[in-house]
Amino acid sequence: MSWPGPGRFLLPVAVGLAEAGVRVVGVFEAGDPRAYLSRPRALTAAAGKLGEAAGYAAALARHRVPYNLRHAVVAANGDADSGLGGASVAAVSSVDVARLDAAGQVVVGTRRRIACDAVAVGYGFTANLELALLLGCATRVGADGGLALVVGEDGRTTVPGVYAAGEVTGVGGAALAVVEGEIAGSAVVGDAALSPRDLAAARRKRDRLRAFADAMHAAHAVPTGWPSWIDDDDTLVCRCEEVSAAAIRAAVTDLGASDARSVKALARPGMGWCQGRVCGYAAAALTARHCDRPMTRDDLLAYAHRPFATPVRLGDLAGDL
Length: 321
What we know:
Elements: E1 2-5, H1 10-19, E2 26-29, H2 40-45, H3 47-62, E3 67-69, E4 71-82, E5 88-99, E6 112-115, H4 130-135, E7 139-141, E8 147-149, H5 174-189, H6 196-219, E9 236-238, E10 243-244, H7 245-253, H8 260-267, H9 280-290, H10 297-304, H11 314-319
Parallel strand pairs: 1-2, 2-3
Antiparallel strand pairs: 4-5, 5-6, 7-8, 9-10
Helix pairs in contact: 1-3, 5-6, 7-8, 7-9, 9-10
């Protein structure tokens, strides 16, 4: 198994797999954790995270798992296999790995092939904003490049009476979510909550954890050059609707789409079962790239607005009766 992508969660998952007996042939970090060194105050504020990371590094070394900085899996290779019901299922036999430059472009001459039978990919998290968006809460582009709610000092959103805390205000981990919840809860219930001293301490802790989260996103950012790794015709962006990267490009270059919402209507990415939960960010990023502009909040919103409901089959309901 190989494990590619950017983010500190590559470490605990790779270690957990190795300790469970899986042979992990490599961890390929597309970012550069050395970027933490440019933000020493953020590191000081979260010293415990350094010890945690050191423990994971020691475990990887113990299991002899290579940890590769500024490397990415740029292709998965394999033959079609017969799946259930005669369906064609791709079976991975190897991956192509390459070193990346500072812009996220593949360094010429560094591409190599590694045999494996599984690939675990991690490229960040997507917050669940459905309820907040239906209520009309304003959004912004977060430090990780994803969509987040606009909140004030006490977690107040732009909708009166609606407060938010946790990953919907910007991905930052469980500890940050808890302290944000304490602050927002205190604002909601008033005098019955935290004392002024405890509230000030909670805000200081939140600020420290948010600073570390911002440093983490900077160090493990998805490389801006990632679209250059893919072959448009062979890369499936939206699995639900079977929309290729080539179809997204054609919606812009051939059909004249200038925003993600138009691409969604013309090529149908994000229109299937997941409603853009999986493919939305990639589709928005590709749209912006083909339009020769940065990705915007509106691009992300095109795939974030979805019904606050999940389809349930009648058979599943009947089975619980």
